[in-house]
Amino acid sequence: MPRYLTANFPGIGGTIKTSPEDFLVEELPLYPACGEGDHLYLEVEKRGLTTFELLKRLACALQVNERDMGYAGLKDAQATTRQFISVPGCPEERALALDLDDIRILSARRHRNKLRLGHLAGNRFTITVRQVDHQAREKALDILHVLQMAGVPNFFGEQRYGVLGNSHRIGQAIVRQNYAEAIAQIIGDPEKITNPDWQHAARLFCAGRLSEAVAALPRRMRHERDLITCLQQGACAEKALRRLPAKLLRLYLSAYQSHLFDRLVTMRLDSLDTLWPGDLAYKHDNGACFLVTDPAAEQPRADRLEISPSAPLFGYKVKLAESQAGILEQALLSKEAIDLKDFRIGTGLSMPGERRPLRIPVAEIDARQESDQLILSFVLPKGCFATTVLREIMKTEQQHQAP
């Protein structure tokens, strides 16, 4: 069964994301645009689009090179989101005059530098949970107050693992150099595919009928088609896989890192607010880590949520914890039958790794109820997911099967 930090508090159940308006994400900028410079910072509201789709459409409409545009963070497609995009050499009047479906320009202001990934303070979420009972607000506030004091378990969550929930398995197979298994996972298990054309193609692939599988795949699945075509032409599995875009392969590897991190969060769930000997403590004000040699001396800072235990996104350069805390990290690597050096994959795919806090602060919490709808709002640091707060409040998560 799924485990929760607030297991003693009943969840509210309900459903989310019945429409993009139910999930509003507002990017909080790290700094304001200064008002002068070669880059135009646009505050953009998008609806039902990925950030990459947004960039592509803006680049076309403003006649700029998409590679020269900047963004601070990726935002959910199944939502209404407000985020900042930088555009070089674009007049404010042209940007503000844009009239695009599902895209609205809220403001435009000049700045000297291109906006870079990670240059945001955090995100404010306003989320409508539907089909809840009349006590939902009180239940939610009880849980939110606990999370505000103890911190939120910093899970990545199921949205990280793709439509079939197996992106991490693809990454795992790549790290283990089992390229045939990685391709099989990309094509997909027919028993888990709901699209009839895709399912039929997957069955043909499993039967070794490659040319028929290519013909049966839905038109939009060009990467899968390229993979099977390459195999059909006699290429080995590794060569076929490496012909996929590096950005896509890195997403699979990142999903595997995320999956292993989530497992470490689960292992420490009962002690997320407690420092262990050998922990690498994460400073929430600047993201730096330091080795904990005297847990008792540092614990008051953890109690104030100034610092937290951390865990690795495993990679070839990441520093592992020591002593008691390090035993868990080494044990997980052993169970996976991998080593840190296995993440040095080469050709733009090597993953250096980093440390990430096991818990995160939540701020500016609020909840109001309108009949059977509960509107939640809260602020999280950058790189953290609202779903980790929602899973504690709703408690509707299904059990996740580890590989």
Helix-strand layout with pairing:
Blueprint: E1 23-29, E2 39-47, H1 51-62, E3 70-71, E4 80-88, H2 92-96, E5 103-111, E6 120-130, H3 136-150, E7 152-153, H4 167-175, H5 179-187, H6 196-206, H7 210-216, H8 222-232, H9 237-242, H10 246-267, E8 280-283, E9 289-291, H11 295-303, E10 307-313, H12 323-336, E11 354-357, E12 359-360, E13 363-370, E14 373-381, H13 386-394
Parallel strand pairs: 1-4
Antiparallel strand pairs: 1-6, 2-4, 2-5, 3-4, 6-14, 7-12, 8-9, 8-10, 10-11, 13-14
Helix pairs in contact: 3-13, 4-5, 4-10, 6-7, 7-8
Can you describe what's shown?
With 403 residues, the chain is an alpha+beta fold. Among the domains are: 31-118, TruD, catalytic domain (Pseudouridine synthase), CATH 3.30.2350; 167-246, Hypothetical Protein Yqey, Chain: A, domain1, CATH 1.10.1510; 268-360, TruD, catalytic domain (Pseudouridine synthase, 2-Layer Sandwich), CATH 3.30.2350.20. The protein is 34% helix and 21% strand. The chain is built from 13 helices and 14 strands. It has helices at 51-62, 92-96, 136-150, 167-175, 179-187, 196-206, 210-216, 222-232, 237-242, 246-267, 295-303, 323-336, 386-394; strands at residues 23-29, 39-47, 70-71, 80-88, 103-111, 120-130, 152-153, 280-283, 289-291, 307-313, 354-357, 359-360, 363-370, 373-381. Strands 1, 2, 3, 4, 5, 6, 13 and 14 form an 8-stranded mixed β-sheet that branches. Strands 9-8-10-11 form a 4-stranded antiparallel β-sheet. β13 and β14 (373-381) form a beta hairpin. α4 packs antiparallel against α5 (179-187), α4 packs across α10 (246-267) and α6 packs antiparallel against α7. The chain is globular. Residues 399-403 have low confidence and may be disordered.
